Amino acid sequence: MPVDSSLPSAAARVRAPLASLAIAAAAFAGVALLVPAATRGDGGGDAAHAGAGAAAPALDPARVPFEAQAPDFCGEACLSMALRYWGVETDQYRVHALTGVAPELGRGAWTAEMNAATRRLWGPSYPSPWFELTGKEGEVETRFRQLASSVASGTPCMVCCRYDERKEASEHFRLVTRIDPATGELTYQEPAEADGAGRRMTKERFVGLWPVRGSNGPLLILFPFPAPPAAARAAIPRLPDLAGRVVQAVRRVRARVPADFHLGVEGPFVIASDQSPEEFRSSRQHTIQWAYTHLQAQFFPGGLRHPIEVYLLNGKASYEGHVEEWFHERPHTKYGYYSPAHQALFMNIATGGGTLVHEMVHPLMAEQFPGVPSWFNEGLASLFEQCGEENGKMVGLLNWRYSGLMEAIRTGQFKALERLMRTDSQTFYANDQGDNYGIARYLCQYLQSRGKIQEYYQHFHAHSGEDPTGIASLRAVLGGDSMEKIQADWLAWLKTLKR
Ligand SMILES: [Zn+2]
């Protein structure tokens, strides 16, 4: 599947339930058009667009912002440009959130879904955008005059038309910002091209491209975008853009992996896998969805605000081969890892789900606690390599790192908790002073055993500016004890653990 952002997708834009089309069209005729916008009294646009009752000002195409579309987001980009023209702070990703398209479909909105978005913004009386063509003389001209009069009175209008004259051309949304009263020439925003602002098209060419295929025959599609109501103006800037960005990640992942890979979405995670269907379902639900829900509830409120690609690769050959093929890098670990550069998790899932939960912690930490020292980043991630649920919470359980840690303590390689907590990243990863991961993990499990791990995270997160190592926070949540006392208690607790 092509993901060239300069081209609209081949997906048809027009997939609408057309049962009551004639009625809808008649209703639209009764409403005429939603123009002039300024007389609707619900706009609150800037002064240039206001002035209720006065002659509506013509639309100045130069004042309509331009937004190049992400792949398949032509409708979203057009509506976003119109909303921004009316002074609403938004973008195509936020607009996508209004369309209700399931992110795993990996596509932008079609006409019916754009219609759902406009009805959410302008209310249920928003007129139907579909006009069925019956072949009667002059009917295209009538609709063209409606389009021209709407634009002339200050309302940007979105049309759906074929991309060009080729027979296989896809259907595509464009935003019309002016129609020359003398010649009928259109000025429009072409979202599919980076320099698509203020494009021109003759009326003759447009009229040839405008009719699109509906299930009952040819259709014209026309969305007027008058000034949005106050409630919508307030709500749109607060919409999350995550779903729209997830759609784009789905498209990238789908283009990358073989056709027989499973593909799924869990929140911000776009997951591709060559596991069996049962294993894939289990990884999605029992590992990713379960762990993400608990990680949000216990440590990372609100979760991730951007998508993460997750590749669950079934065995060494698939893991090493696919990571190399897709990303031109060699995995440095046989279990799996988080790549900040690719915003992706690469997993040899045949080695189990523990590493997956560990790696899920890292993007959350990177986004919500960017200054975290490596010892705590790896300690908390490692805590959940072996985990279960107790009283509704995710808890880390004793794991394979225990014997390595006890060995480091027995042989005197382990020096001091405080020393570990003062390590910088370089030292933590490069100079292993007696199992740094093990010490960090079992300090976290100790805090968990005292019922203090969430409190510690929150305290450390809040005070990391003045306490970048987390030592002061550790002492604070453990009742003010000295580091010597904390270490002695920790060592004693370690001895009580049983493999
Ligand atoms: Zn890690």
Summarize the structure.
The protein is α+β, with helices and mostly antiparallel strands. The chain is 42% helix and 14% strand.
Describe the structure.
The protein is of the alpha+beta class and 499 residues long. The chain folds into two domains: 21-238, Phytochelatin synthase, N-terminal domain (Cathepsin B, Chain A); 242-496, Neutral Protease, domain 2, CATH 1.10.390. Helix content is 42%, strand content 14%. It has 19 helices and 14 strands. It has helices at 21-31, 74-85, 92-99, 111-122, 139-152, 203-209, 230-235, 242-256, 277-298, 316-327, 354-368, 374-383, 401-410, 417-421, 425-430, 436-449, 453-463, 471-477, 483-496; strands spanning 130-132, 157-162, 171-179, 186-189, 199-201, 212-214, 217-224, 262-266, 269-273, 308-313, 336-339, 344-348, 387-390, 393-396. Strands 1, 2, 3, 4, 5, 6 and 7 form a seven-stranded antiparallel sheet that branches. Helix 9 (277-298) packs parallel to helix 11 and helix 12 (374-383) crosses helix 16 (436-449). It starts with 20 loop residues before the first helix and ends with a helix. Mean pLDDT is 89; it is low at 1-11 and 15-54. Bound molecules: zinc ion (ZN). The site of zinc ion (ZN) has 4 residues, from helix 11 and helix 12.
